[in-house]
Design goal:
Rossmann fold; alpha/beta
Length: 295
């Protein structure tokens, strides 16, 4: 088997991503781990724009552009068509953003997951509707600035991993571009499992997060090391494995590098820290205490 590092780059030069786009980096790493025997589904979003304008494309694998809310059932339809044809060496990969996953596409994703259709679904989470003007989504963190929450988002971020776990699908995992080997190992593992596999991939957006274009990898690492975004797996909705022991840095080391959080006061930072600490303790309990597992 060819390792991800030996695969060519399936996100070719000339793509239309913004400078320093974490989403483009994430797509490149995922596609590299998937390999050439892949059919990819994208939706009208940043990943729809990144590929470029018809008849040209920066994507180096077969790609189907579906409607915004149906990335999962479109991928499931392709996977079932391949199954009918007896083609079991082609993987089907669906990309959608947090808006197309947490919000508008959630019912469709739920139906596919309940049916356990054989796809890999990657949520490219940049925590807002970035492609249409930085509007709030249910993936937007507490107190974060967006174009529609100029004084800060009053609601907490939805826990999409627990929603997926409630479906008892065979495999779900979190990942970030700041830990590329972990990400590609999880994609490789997902390829070896039949059924609906879900990867929650944090992809910082320099434009929407109000940061310089070189900070996406660093912010991805800090999200993990502050416990804002732990790296873990959930198998069959029951078995939790934490993949990286974080340094448990204070949350302000992550938050205050981003313009979208510059307005935070001490009380708001304290509340975010409390929420993060509580979620981390709950995760450790589900995992039976901290037990790092590297494949």
């Amino acid at each position: 088997m060819i390792s991800p590092e030996q695969q060519p780059n399936f996100l070719r030069p000339g793509h239309a991503a913004c400078a320093g786009c974490g989403l483009a980096i994430g797509m490149k790493l995922v596609m590299q781990a998937m390999g050439p025997r892949t059919i990819m589904v994208i939706v009208p979003s940043c990943e729809g724009s990144i590929g470029g304008l018809y008849p040209n494309t920066a994507y180096g694998v077969s790609t189907f552009h579906s409607a915004f809310e149906i990335a999962a059932p479109t991928a499931a339809g392709i996977a079932n068509a391949l199954k009918i044809q007896g083609k079991d060496d082609i993987q089907v990969l669906a990309f959608a953003g947090d808006g197309g996953t947490y919000d508008i596409g959630l019912a469709a994703l739920s139906g596919v997951t309940k049916n356990n259709d054989d796809i890999i679904y990657v949520c490219l989470d940049n925590e807002a509707y970035m492609n249409t003007g930085i509007q709030v989504s249910s993936a937007t963190p507490s107190y974060a600035w967006t174009g529609t929450t100029p004084e800060g988002n009053p609601r907490r971020k939805k826990n999409i991993m627990e929603i997926m776990a409630a479906h008892y699908n065979p495999y779900s995992a979190t990942a970030t571009i700041g830990f590329p080997r972990d990400l590609q190992q999880k994609i490789t593992k997902a390829k070896s499992i039949r059924g609906t596999k879900f990867i929650h991939l944090l992809t910082p957006c320099p434009t929407g997060w109000r940061t310089s274009s070189d900070l996406a990898p660093e912010l991805s690492i800090l999200a993990v090391e502050t416990n804002v975004f732990p790296l873990y797996e959930v198998e069959e909705g029951r078995r939790y494995t934490i993949n990286h022991e974080p340094r448990c840095l204070p949350v302000e080391e992550y938050l205050l590098k981003q313009g979208r959080f510059k307005h935070l006061n001490d009380e708001q930072i304290k509340q975010i820290q409390q929420d993060v600490d509580e979620e981390w303790e709950r995760l450790k309990q589900r995992a039976g205490g901290f037990a790092s597992k590297r494949r």
